Input
Amino acid sequence: MKRIAVLGMPNTGKSTFFNRFTGATASIGNWAGVTVDLMMATLTIGELSTEVIDLPGIYDLRGFSEDEAVVQQFLQSTPVDLVIIILNTAQIDRQLSLALQVKHLQLPAVLLLNMADEAPKFGVSVDADKLAVHLQMPVVPLSAKYGHGYEAAVITITQTLQHFAQPTLVANVADRLMDEVALTTELDVILADAVHMADRDQEALTTHLDHVLLHPILGLPLFFVLMFALFQLVYSLGTPLQGWLGAGLDQFKAVALEPALAVWPPFLQGFLLGGLYDGIGTVVAFIPVIGLFFLAMAVIEDSGYLARSAFLMDAFMERLGLDGRSFVMALMGFGCNVPAIMGTRVMRSPGLRLLSMLVIPFSLCSARLNVFIFISTALFAPRTAPLVLFSLYLLSFAAAIVTAALFKGQFPNQDPLVLELPPYRFPTLSQMLVRAWCEVKHFLRWSNRFIIAGVVGVWLLTHLPTTAPPASDQTLAGMIGQVFQPLLAPLGIDAQLTIALLFGFVAKEVVLGGLAVIYGTATEANLGGTLAQHIDWVQAYSFMLFTLLYVPCLSTVAVLKSEAKSTRFALLAVAWSLGLAWFSSLVFYQGARALGF
Amino acid sequence: MPMPMPTPTPTPTEHLAYLKPGHTATILTMDASPGLYHRLLALGFRHGRQVKMLRRSWWSGPVHVRVGTTEVMLRRHDAQRIGIAPLGHASAYGAGE
Output
C-alpha cells in the first residue's frame, strides 16, 4: 500500500484537486495521532493500491496554528511515499516558501501549480522546467477546476510514485526547517530565475466588485440582502422537501409497513415503527436541507464572499469573541441548526469554532417556528400573536449574544484573524455537487446512530410500561415529568407539558405531535382548543421560552458531538442551554404572576 | 518622499493601521507575536515590500490591504504591529521589488 499526502496553502484549490483526483470517493475519518478529521480515499495508481490523504490547508510547516501542528504530527507519525504540493500560480512569489520547506525536509514531492488559468490575468508567468531544477521535484501547471493539465499531472504523479521504493518519515519537522533568512534568500534567487511578474494591478473584476460589495455604506445592507436571498433559496426549497420526504416516509409506514407488521405484538410493532423507523426517518429528513445548504455554502465560500463577510461584520463580532463567518453560520441556523454547525468547519481556529457552535443552537430554527406559530395562534389574540413571535426572535438573538459574551473567555481565539480575500471566482456545478454530497455522507456516517438511538429511547420512555396509555402519567416519561415537577412547576410547566418537552428533544417539531398524543386529540384544530383550556397565556409563553432555549434537538446534539469530537462539549452545550432556559422561564413566569397576570 | 527599500532600517514613522485608503507604503518592521509574524510572512508581508491600503472597515473594524498579488484583511490592532514608511497616494505596484 502506497501513501500520498496532499499539501497546500488555503485558497489554492487543493480540495478541488483532491476531489477530482479521488473521484469524490473520499470520506472524512480519524487519523491516529492527529486531532482533526482528514479526508482520505483509496485509489489504484499505476496498478498500486494507494491511500490519498488531504491534509488541512496550511501556510507554513512551523506548526504555529492548530492545522500546522496537525500536518507536522502527521508527517512525523506517518511514512509517506509522495507529497503532492498545490500552490496558486498567481501567488507563487509567496507560496513557493512551502515547496522550499518540503524540499529541505527531503520528502519525495510533486509540485502542482494550480489556477494556471488565472495567472496570466495577474501578469504572472512561470518557467516550470527551471523551477523543477531549483526545487529538485517535478513541476506541472494545472487548472484543477477546469481540468487543463490534469492528465499530465496524473502521469507525473504515477511515475514519481513508482520511482520511490521506500516511504519517508520525517522526524522533528520543526528542527529541520531552514531559517527565515536562508529561505528568503533562496526564494528570491528562484523567483528571479524562474518567475516573471509583470507590474500589473489586481484583476479588474474583483476590484470593481469589492468597490460595491465592501462599500462603507452599501456593503452591510447588501450583505444582509444577499444572506436573506440565500436563506430563502435554501429553506424555501429545503423545508418543503423535508416535509414531503417526511410525509412520504409516513405514507410508506401506513400503507406498507403497518399492514405487514399487523400480526406482530403491538409493542413490537410500535417499537419498530414509532421508534426505529421514525428514527431513521428523522435522519433521512435532514438530507435535502444539508445538501441544499452546502450547495449554497460552496457558492459563498468558493466565490470568496464568505471571507468578505468576515471583513464586513468583524467590527461587531470581534467584541463577542467571534468573527463574521460565525455570524453567517448563526444566521443560516435560523433555518436549521444542523448544517450550520457542520458549516463552522471553515473556521480553523478551535476556540472560535467551538464558541460559534455553542451560539448557533440558540438560532430560532424553522422547526421551533412551527411550534411557536401554532401555540401563539392558539393562545393569543390575532393582533398580539405576531408580536409574540417577534419577541421570541429578539430573545433568540439575545441568548446568542449573552452566550458569546459569557463564554468568549473559555474559548479564546488563538489564531490571528489575518484572512486572505481571494479574487472572486464562481465554483463549477460539479464542485458544488461534490461538496453537498460529501457533507451529506459525513452527516449520515457520524450522526445516524446517535439520532436513531435517541428517537428509540424517547419512544420507549413514552410507551413503557406497556400497560400504561402512551405518553400518560403512568409511563416512564410521565414519571420523569412528575420527578421534575418541583423544578418545572415554578415555570408554569405542568407534568403534561414536561412530557411534550421530552418529545421535543427528538426534534422540536415533534412537540406538537407529542401534545396531541398527550391530550388525546386527533387533529391540530382540536389541539389548539384543548391547549387553551389547559393552560393560560403566561404558561404558554413560558413554555415557548423554554422550548426556544432548552437543549438543542437530538440531531443538533449529535452534530455538536461529532464536529467538536468531544462528548464533554456536547454536554456543556446541553447543560448551558437547559440552565438558561430554566432561568429565563422562571424570571418570566414569576415576574408575570407577580405583576398580577 | 522616503526612498524605496533603504538598507539600514529607519524608524517607522507610521503603522499600517493608519495608512489612508488608496495610499501605498513600504513595510519596515513587523513587531508581532510568532504566530502572527509567520502568518504575515506566509501571506507575503516582508521587510521592504510594498503594501497598499484598499479600505478600512467601520467602527474600528479590520483593514483590507494588498501585498503583491494577495489581498488580505487584518484586524486594526494586528495592523498596528506593522511599521511602515508611507509612499503617498500612488497606484505603484511592485516598484520597490
